[in-house]
Amino acid sequence: EARPAKLTPEEIKIINSTIDLSETPVTKEMKPIEHVFMIDETMEITDERVSDIVKSGFSKIPVMRGCDKNDIVGFIKVKNLADYPTRLLHKRICDSGIQLVKPLIVPENTSMLEMLMTFQKERTAIALISNQRKDENGNITLPEGQEYAIIGLIALKDIFEEILESKMYDDDIHMLIDPHNKTPGLRNHRMFQTVA
């Protein structure tokens, strides 16, 4: 007679953590919006500014309108910005033609499990969190007396860290622009690994 497989302590820990996700709101693991690195859509593309962005260590960065953190028009992929051609030099982000990723925004009482499922459905790995709330019928409303605001950001790896209870690192390889290279066309880059 076959015996049921015995779960290891690590497997039990992961199962328990997954169950806890349904009771844990995204606000527990989000990064507060005041601590989120952002750029404005009117930022001029220069070697120095792109280098600073790459050094931030993030693979996607929110782009806001009018320096308003509640008006985020999308996410820019740093690898796309780091690979900009000469013709985009000194253009503004909003005039560059660089495609932005549409922002995914969820209410503050979204559970970590719901967020995980939404990431899978939307095929994305990053979301903004608003101060709106979702009721039991799925209706999203703003608490009385409050103005709409973006309060934080959460990434897929934050959920994995909650499950594994360990720090994960961004494996994206970013490109650092060499501003001293005057070769026309794409600039010379050197590779380095960044920690999220």
Strand order of the largest sheet: 1-9-6-5
Structural class: alpha+beta
Number of strands: 11
Global morphology: globular
Distance between the termini: 49 Å
- Total of DSSP H or I helical runs spanning 4+ residues: 5
Q: Sketch the major β-sheet.
A: 4 strands, mixed
- N-to-C order of helices and strands: HEEHEEHEHEEEEHEE
Mean pLDDT: 81
Proportion of residues in extended strands = 15-25%
* Quaternary structure: single chain
Low-confidence stretches: 170-196
Please describe what this structure looks like.
- It is a single chain.
- Helix 1 (about 10-20) packs across helix 5.
- This protein is about 25% helix and about 25% strand.
- It is built from 5 helices and 11 strands.
- Strand 2, helix 2 and strand 3 (about 60-65) form a beta-alpha-beta unit.
- The longest helix has 13 residues, at about 10-20.
- It has helices at about 10-20, 45-55, 80, 110-120, 155-165; strands at about 30, 40, 60-65, 70-75, 105, 125-130, 135, 140, 150-155, 175, 190-195.
- The protein is α+β, with helices and mostly antiparallel strands and about 200 residues long.
Task: Compile the SSE list and pairings.
Blueprint (H helix, E strand, L loop, with lengths): L8 H13 L9 E2 L6 E2 L6 H9 L4 E6 L2 E10 H5 L22 E3 L4 H11 L3 E5 L2 E2 L5 E2 L8 E6 H9 L8 E5 L11 E5 L3
Parallel strand pairs: 2-3, 5-6
Antiparallel strand pairs: 1-9, 3-4, 6-9, 7-8, 10-11
Helix pairs in contact: 1-5
